[in-house]
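Late entry, zinc ion complex.
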Amino acid sequence: MTTVIKGGTLITADRMWEADILIEGEKIAAVGPDLKGDTVIDAGGAYVIPGGIDPHTHLEMPFMGTTAAETFESGTAAAASGGTTMIVDFVLPGPDGSLVNAVKDWHRKADGKICIDVGWHVAITGWNQTIWQEMAEVVKMGVNSFKHFMAYKGALMVEDDEMYASFTRCAELGALPLVHAENGDIIAELQKKFMEAGQIGPEGHAHSRPPEVEGEATNRAIMIADAAGVPLYVVHVSCEQAHEAIRRARQKGMRVFGEPLVQHLTLDESEYFDKDWDHAAQRVMSPPFRNKAHQDSLWAGLTAGSLQVVATDHCAFTTDQKRMGLKGFPMIPNGTGGLEDRLAVLWTTGVETGRLTPEEFVAVTSTNIARILNIYPRKGALVPGADADIVVWDPKLKKTIRAANQLSILDYNVFEGIEVTAQARHTLSRGKVVWSHGQNERPRAGHGVYVPRPAFPSVNRALSVWKDLNSPRFVHRDPQNIPSGV
Ligand code: URP
Ligand code: ZN
Ligand code: ZN
Ligand code: ZN
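Prediction complete; structure with ligand written out below:
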């Protein structure tokens, strides 16, 4: 059985052209004019793009005394309806601290439930010999990225020595360290200060996490990565201070990547002020939404290439769960939704406004992260041999975002009322149509598979030349031969 997608305009990260796509089984077999297949998918008047990859989700994750409400079934169904065909979810070690058990646990939660493909990042939340050893096992299980929280003191936060040890291990294994960059010590102090001053509502969340705490941690993480000789990926970059650190590092030749979220690009800090408690709390996430100047910096980074990926950090708590923080903002579970609407909101606010070219849109929603995570061109590409993860993207399909109409399990939507100008007409995951607009057929649980990601080849590993022990700048001295008096 073959399928042909006919009559569309293809967009990839580097060009736009008219062609058909022939699909055989799960793979793209050919791209070109006048292709024939057993069944035809009409892409007339539409674009055809590689399926979106959201590299930052937290489905069913235990966090802040509760568990993220979005399930692997509802989250991946929602993602598929919005044109996303792969997510990379964050695995957190459980009470036994084992990374391997945590990965097995995430497979148990996802297997048979997912509608699209998934991969894992694994969080390093402490340091010991077992973790050092298990990191290698986890890499063999197809995980090539490890996440480090520099915030959430007393829970997930790692200290600098732990981060340095883990980054060094990443360098040995050919894995990529990720950081949530906020200074957790300063945040804890500011939280105390605002609570004592009586500012206990969600506004206090924004005040206690100013751009400075993010800028400081981003700079620190970059320097630690440099010292460990490993590239770095900074998740949810929300402000100029963090972006500036990444820009500067890249200009010096360091491999540092930055990921803004569609929420930070489009929603600002006014969401926390002069709003009712539920509205503001539903938008409490870390880092918090910023002002327009920070948003402009993030948009500029996407066009200039200093920021490479737009994700969602989908970590969805219901209004009832958010109310756990009624007595004080530090208890509001941190996280927002977005994975269903990422492509449509970014297209509307980015491509429609001229801030992003269609090619840049594809790069930041799919191709760049496929390259960064070492799954390109299986994912993120429209070439023969690639997985047929393809979206027929209709630039005339408008809708007003309403929580009432979403597939996400949440009872609200942070983009409520925003009118988007484009949507997925069809979403194909490994050659199968999993979503068609207007047909009201829920994507099928169990279609998705786990996508293992190989470790990086050694050529990609070095961040600093001076860390290379074979460099002429590294002087070997014989301890027996040091002149006396030195
Ligand atoms: O507020 C957020 N971002 N919640 C999810 C966990 C994290 O920090 O990424
Ligand atoms: Zn699995
Ligand atoms: Zn985070
Ligand atoms: Zn996150």
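Residues 211-228 form the longest helix (18 residues). Will revisit in the morning.
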